[in-house]
Specification:
Number of domains: 1
Distance between the termini: 12 Å
Largest sheet: none
Structural class: mainly alpha
Radius of gyration: 24 Å
CATH architecture: Orthogonal Bundle
Number of strands: 0
Oligomer: single chain
CATH topology: MetI-like fold
CATH class: Mainly Alpha
Strand content: under 5%
């Protein structure tokens, strides 16, 4: 078990380092922050002074070393716009984003898993076909299209809800629905597939043949085994709680981390962008790490070197 944890944690740290490195290089090759922040009419000496003050005139490898050295000390830089700490700026927006994404995650789980299980248990029925049609539609429709459609129906035509902003709880309903519907559709499809695969296994037929009540077969045998692939999707959804809100926050003018990322990228506010990307990478990696541990709990074979070889992983 100790080696299992060490391997997963080591892989997580390497992944975060690669993401940060990639983001660092791409941001510095995508444009000159001095010209974007100060404007094209800024005198050359002002541009040069700005680059010198922020270390942008150093070689990129030296900037990279300084950046990682600052991360090791817990410093993620300061905004080139107002000089505030990037961590402070991002931390102010995290609760605002979580106010959308956490209820949306609850909505995904509360609709997607029961719908998928019910559809699998009633395979071929009218309910199953309806669930699949709705899930395919929710899976294929882009979030910005779904968001604009909800705005058109509930804000413009019916006038029931506001179209954007953050003034009251009513402003959060449409963004939460936009985030939740697509995720519930994906989860319903995967849950149904996982349940159908498990229901076709010999041990399910053996349990039924022994006279075990069907309800116990489902709750004690089918659901725990179907949970293994479903946990992967849930882990991915948890990991994208912040990254997945970028488009939706822009559509509904919700002032969270996602919208901050869009503005920071447009303004080439490097420290803020890097801080958000590091947060997103850490969230996704940590969620995947938790999923790996849950795998080990749900399937003890994965905790052993022999089990990992059989699963195609590293011993």
């Amino acid at each position: 078990m100790g080696r299992f944890i060490i391997l997963r944690v080591g892989r997580a740290l390497i992944t975060i380092a690669l993401v940060v490195t990639f983001a660092f290089i791409v941001l510095r090759l995508s444009g000159d922050p001095a010209q974007i922040i100060l404007g094209p009419e800024a005198p050359p000496e002002v541009l040069a002074a700005f680059r010198r003050a922020w270390g942008l005139d150093d070689p990129i490898w030296l900037q990279y070393l300084h950046y990682f050295g600052a991360i090791a000390q817990g410093e993620l830089g300061r905004s080139m716009r107002d000089g505030r700490s990037a961590i402070e700026i991002v931390a102010e927006r995290i609760p605002i984003t979580l106010a959308l994404t956490v209820p949306a995650l609850v909505l995904k789980l509360g609709i997607g898993i029961p719908a998928g299980v019910y559809a699998a248990l009633h395979r071929g029925s009218l309910t199953d076909r309806i669930v699949m049609i709705v899930s395919v539609a929710g899976f294929t429709i882009p979030s910005f299209v779904l968001g604009l459609t909800l705005v058109l129906v509930f804000a413009v035509q019916l006038g029931w809800l506001p179209s954007g902003g953050q003034d009251s709880w009513r402003h959060a309903i449409l963004p939460i629905l936009t985030l939740g519907i697509g995720g519930a559709a994906i989860l319903a499809r995967f849950t149904r597939s996982a349940m159908l695969e498990v229901l076709g296994q010999p041990f399910i037929r053996a349990a039924s043949a022994k006279g075990v009540p069907w309800q116990d077969v489902i709750t004690r045998h089918a659901l725990p085994n179907a949970a293994i692939p479903t946990v992967t999707i849930i882990g991915f959804m948890v990991g994208t709680l912040i990254a997945g809100a970028v488009v939706v926050e822009s559509v509904f003018s919700w002032p969270g981390v996602g919208r901050l990322l869009v503005v920071a990228v447009a303004n080439r506010d490097l420290a803020v962008v890097q801080c958000i990307l590091l947060l997103v990478a850490a969230t996704m990696v940590i969620s995947n790490l938790i999923v790996d541990f849950l795998y080990g709990f749900l399937d003890p074979r994965l905790r052993s070197a022999k089990g990992q070889k059989a699963a195609g992983g590293q011993p």
